[in-house]
Write a structure and sequence with these properties.
Length: 321
């Protein structure tokens, strides 16, 4: 069958994807790689290799040596950090993808998962219920790289029949590992601060709605999309998937039901402008129709999971629920 290679395995999504892949396929069927050395206690039992996806020779040798058939390419610079690292964001987000697509074109791997993002949409896209096919004029470095990446995935599929599958992830909320450098990170930070300090200073305005999703739904969507018969898919660019749409005010109110002393104040910065250029909700009817995508977590269920999860992960946190 061939093994699964996760590139960027120590990041927010990689950490949990490795866990689920090993549960489904077995520890010896998954190889974890990251540019940073292995973190203590992370991915125990799974082969971990330090690897830079931009080193195409090392990547090709790992694929060959460990008989990799599927690659999950999660290494990327996210929206906020990319704004101050234009060149390295473009380099990693584009050339990392090229290196993997080239291996697939040469038949060295069979299937690729590459995450796109709601960041492909921009100020000229429909704000509400943004459709799968839409005007894509992103005005962020990250969004430009993701929308170009979608074009390349489609090109490699059309031209070379590369099996590359993709999802436009919304903001992903999780407690097991922290996001790093995104605009939607506020929706994770808010939980940690609410539990530790009962207050949060939010860098996004009160009423800015963004598409979001709980991690378990995102991981399930990723694996379902990779497992589905190729013939059922109508696009190899990237699927819209939707779950939640909320504002900082909504989530603060929900947190207050568990932490009544919680206070939020607003101090918008450059990330607010990025957030305002993105849709507030997206239309995912194609994913629902093609491969039966359906979310399980709503705002209530997610909030409870986050609060319980952070508390049980962190012994220093005072118990207020
Ligand atoms: C970010 O905020 O940059 C990411 C994303 C929406 O892709 N979470």
């Amino acid at each position: 069958m061939g093994k699964k290679l996760v590139i960027g395995s120590s990041g927010q999504i990689g950490t949990e994807l490795i866990h689920t892949l090993t549960k489904i396929y077995g520890e010896n069927q998954v190889v974890a790689t990251d540019i940073y050395p292995k973190q203590e206690g992370k991915h125990d039992g799974v082969l971990f290799l330090k690897m830079d996806v931009l080193d195409s020779i090392h990547l090709a040798s790992v694929v060959k040596e460990y008989e990799i058939s599927e690659v999950y390419l999660l290494a990327a610079l996210l929206s906020a950090v990319s704004e101050s690292k234009i060149k390295s964001a473009w380099d990693l987000n584009m050339n990392g993808l090229f290196n993997v697509l080239e291996l697939a074109r040469q038949g060295q791997i069979k299937k690729v998962f590459w995450p796109s993002s709601i960041a492909v949409f921009g100020p000229t896209s429909p704000k509400e219920n943004s459709p799968q096919q839409s005007i894509l004029e992103p005005n962020t470095v990250y969004g430009i790289s993701k929308s170009a990446g979608e074009r390349w995935c489609d090109y490699y599929h059309q031209k070379f029949n590369v099996d590359v599958r993709s999802i436009r992830y919304p903001g992903i909320i999780s407690y097991k590992s922290l996001p790093g450098g995104g605009t939607t990170d506020y929706a994770v930070d808010i939980f940690h601060e609410a539990i530790k300090h009962q207050r949060y200073s939010c860098f996004i305005e009160k009423d800015v709605y963004l598409p979001m999703m709980y991690m378990d739904d995102a991981i399930r969507a990723t694996i379902e999309l990779m497992q589905v018969e190729k013939s059922t898919l109508s696009t190899f660019k990237s699927y819209n998937i939707a779950a939640l749409s909320f504002s900082p005010d909504d989530i603060a109110k929900e947190i207050s039901t568990y932490i009544p002393d919680f206070k939020i104040n607003y101090s918008p910065d450059f990330r607010n402008k990025i957030a305002k250029s993105w849709p507030s909700s997206i239309n995912d009817q194609d994913a629902r129709k093609d491969w039966g995508w359906k979310q399980e977590f709503d705002l209530k269920k997610m909030t409870l999971k986050m609060i319980e999860g952070i508390k049980s992960n962190n012994s220093l946190v005072s118990s207020s629920i």
